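User: My instructor asked us to take a sequence, write out its structure as tokens, and then describe one feature of it. I'm not sure where to start. Here is the sequence I was given:
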Amino acid sequence: MKKVFLFSVIIVLSFSCAKKVSQENKTEAKSEKVIVGGDVDSHGCKASAGYTWSIVKNKCIRTFEGTKLSHAEESGKTYTTAAYVVFEGNKAELFLDTQKESIVLERKSEGDSWVNGDLQLIPWKGYVLKKAGKIIYTGQ
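Assistant: Let's start with the prediction itself. The structure tokens for your sequence are:
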């Protein structure tokens, strides 16, 4: 009789421990809703993988695979950031380190500069980007 009673107590304890562990696992699963690599934007681009939406390409791209533009030389200033440009037909899309959104420039025909307001991207010894007539970026 003592063996049956002891066996019953062991079974009851093991079921209650298993239930408690199961409840703890459910609580942990509910609190951990951050998924690694789950940082997609409204277009489905994953920023953690280096992707951003391109208006001219109409898809997610990695801007650093485009043409790199470096800050124009200024006396005594050193920059650690860069800008990038991607091309599609007669459009050039600028991804500037100073802007949150990209800027689309257009040109009228082959060989012309791409223009948007006071920005002008000139194909000369690579590329030169001017703002209001002043060179701000250059690249190849």
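For the description part of your assignment, you could build on this observation: Residues 1 and 19 are 27 Å apart (CA to CA). Try explaining in your own words what that tells you about the chain.
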